[in-house]
Automatic annotation (TrEMBL):
Protein name: DMT family transporter
Residues that span the membrane, as ranges: 12-31, 43-60, 72-90, 102-121, 128-145, 157-178, 190-208, 228-247, 254-273, 279-296
Record-linked SUPFAM superfamilies: Multidrug resistance efflux transporter EmrE
Keyword Zinc-finger part of the UniProt annotation: no
InterPro entries reported for this sequence: AA-Vitamin_Transporters, EamA_dom, EmrE-like
UniProt topology in membrane: Multi-pass membrane protein
Principal localisation: membrane
Family to which the UniProt record says this protein belongs: Belongs to the EamA transporter family.
Length: 308
């Protein structure tokens, strides 16, 4: 009996999607564990350093082949795609739960649409607009819910949610930049080299601008926290990138984008396991955000023409 390549490929696609969702969905609980010992700046910087170092075998050989314009563009990509979001997510989670942060991260596809329309000539459809409105309502609910009431209004909004929103805006800018500026480079090369280019700044800040080294030596639980952050950088950035590109290669971009909807589920599960409390209003906001992202990111099905 001959094997079914199509069936095997479908199974492999689903396995990679589940693995990627688990890795990226776990990023927020790992940030939370790192923040037990280290500051937001230290968490962000170490995440960049660990990811960039593990990708050196990919980035260093390819760096010599780039021209000055490509290097400049990759520095921009490194800043908005990795460096700035790493600090923003860490800062946000000093006052936000990992589960809520994971849900807000799902806004990335909508910002891809908005930035594309504003600066890169893409069009916003009616479906995009509806998704944006629903997701916005969900975000307002999520960042306004307080203990003792389901929805407390704008007066009690948690401002730290805007760090996450700004990070997803950066991701939206970065994905448009990758699409329009780097036609000749593969996504793995873009990420590896862009991380290499921002590595010196992150390393200098970590070693000279923080007490990271002292904490590693003297703080109780520091080595465990470093372990969590190493997993975050190596697995959550470097390895996840390779998995994602492998998934896009054997499946479709639309199928790969499903990870956007699965990440919040994993983040919420980790948060609940870790003792985070979700109020009824949170669940309403979560559903609205995911529903809005799904509607806004959904492609219109094209009719297939059958040959006679």
């Amino acid at each position: 009996m001959t094997p079914n390549p199509s069936g095997d490929q479908t199974l492999r696609s689903w396995l990679l999607l589940m693995l990627l969702s688990l890795i990226w969905g776990s990023s927020f609980i790992l940030i939370k564990k790192g923040l037990v010992v280290f500051s937001a700046g230290e968490v962000g910087a170490y995440r960049i350093v660990s990811a960039a170092l593990v990708l050196l075998p990919l980035s260093l050989p390819r760096l010599k082949k780039l021209n000055k314009k490509q290097v400049g563009n990759l520095i921009v990509a490194g800043l908005v795609g990795s460096f700035i979001p790493a600090f923003l997510f860490a800062k946000a989670q000093t006052q936000l739960s990992s589960s809520i942060t994971g849900v807000l991260n799902a806004l990335t596809p909508l910002f891809v649409v908005i930035i594309g329309a504003l600066f890169f000539g893409s069009k916003i459809t009616g479906r995009n607009s509806l998704g944006l409105i629903i997701a916005f309502i969900g975000v307002v609910i999520l960042i306004s819910v307080k203990e003792g009431s389901s929805f407390s209004g704008f007066a009690d909004i948690n401002g730290y949610a805007f760090f996450v929103i700004l990070a997803t805006l950066c991701y939206g800018i970065n994905l448009n930049i990758i699409k329009h500026w780097f036609v000749a480079l593969k996504p793995v090369e873009i990420t590896a080299i862009s991380l290499l280019l921002v590595l010196p700044v992150a390393l200098l800040y970590l070693m000279a601008g923080t007490d990271f080294s002292m904490k590693v030596v003297h703080e109780e639980g520091a080595l465990l926290a470093v372990g969590y952050l190493t997993i975050l950088g190596v697995l959550g950035t470097a390895i996840a990138l390779i998995i994602f590109n492998g998934l896009v290669k054997i499946a479709t971009p639309v199928f790969a984008s499903m990870v956007t909807y699965l990440i919040p589920i994993v983040a919420i599960a980790w948060g609940v396991i870790d003792g985070e409390v979700l109020l009824p209003g949170h669940y309403i906001g979560i559903v609205a955000v995911i529903l809005g992202v799904w509607i806004g990111n959904r492609k219109k099905k094209q009719k297939t023409v059958t040959e006679s």
